[in-house]
Amino acid sequence: MDKKNRLTITISIITLVIVALLASFSRTIFLQNIPSVSLANPDDTQQGDSAFGHYWLVAATPDTVQAIVETIVRPDSYYREMTVEYLWSGGGSATSVQVWHHQSYTYARLDDQSGVIENRLSDGATLYSWYEGTTQLLQAPVDAAGDDLAQIIPTYESLLDADPSDILEAGYEMKDGTACVYAAVQQDEDSIERFWISVDQGLLMAAQREQGEQVVYRLSSTGGVTVPCPSDTSFDLPDGSTLFST
């Protein structure tokens, strides 16, 4: 083998070694920079890994939580049950809420345990409301948040409009057995609103509003979410007319 060929082979070997070293170094840097799940309780690590899935999640912080929430998609059809509490110094009230949602239609049955049941039906443009046992119907125009208004729950997408400096806390938490994105937002000088949004289902699973040191509003999920909405669901007005049926 002449001197020229030996030089060519030597250069080729050196080049391959350099490429291999660079590839290994780049892989190490890449793996070090993959964002990981941040759980509120370090003891929940194993549970969180199962609940959030065996994949990497962007760490939820006050700086990133808005971008995370922006990617969350609500289901197009579902049934769920909740409890909504209004609280004040020395007392409070609780309302059991059943919700049927399909496409742009939302029907909510609100039982405040006083014997009076309110029905609310939104078609995305109008909110209809009436009390069970009567046919007197009230109507009001609504915007895209009409389905939340029917359910008497806050619209978590309001997080997207918050000034990032007003987001006090953020992370991933287990809430009532559901893996959630959590965020706390300063609404005004005396008011803080907290949201727990299901990573898997895209629904608000819990919420809380604090006025000073007092919790004045609390939302809790009281059962699982059924997706899709039961196939025999009908969105009816009290006069018997049907706006939509699944």
CATH architecture of the largest domain: Clam
CATH superfamily of the largest domain: Lipoprotein localisation LolA/LolB/LppX
Instruction: State the shape.
Output: globular
Strand content: 35-45%
Strand and helix order: HHHEEEEEEHEEEEEEE
Level of helix content?
A: 10-25%
Count the domains: 2
CATH topology of the largest domain: outer membrane lipoprotein receptor (LolB), chain A
The largest pleated sheet is described as:
11 strands, antiparallel
In the CATH scheme, the class of the largest domain would be: Mainly Beta
Structural class determined from secondary elements? alpha+beta
- The N- to C-terminal Cα distance equals 81 Å
User: Total helix count?
Assistant: 4
Can you count the beta strands?
13
* Rg calculated over all Cα atoms: 26 Å
Q: What topology emerges from the helices and strands here?
A:
Elements: H1 3-32, H2 45-52, H3 65-71, E1 77-88, E2 91-102, E3 105-111, E4 117-122, E5 126-131, E6 138-141, H4 146-151, E7 167-175, E8 178-188, E9 191-198, E10 204-211, E11 214-221, E12 234-236, E13 242-245
Antiparallel strand pairs: 1-2, 1-11, 2-3, 3-4, 4-5, 5-6, 7-8, 8-9, 9-10, 10-11, 12-13
What does this structure look like?
This protein is of the alpha+beta class and 246 residues long. The protein has 4 helices and 13 strands. Strands 6-5-4-3-2-1-11-10-9-8-7 form an 11-stranded antiparallel beta sheet. A two-stranded antiparallel ribbon has the order 12-13. The protein is globular, with a radius of gyration of 26 Å.
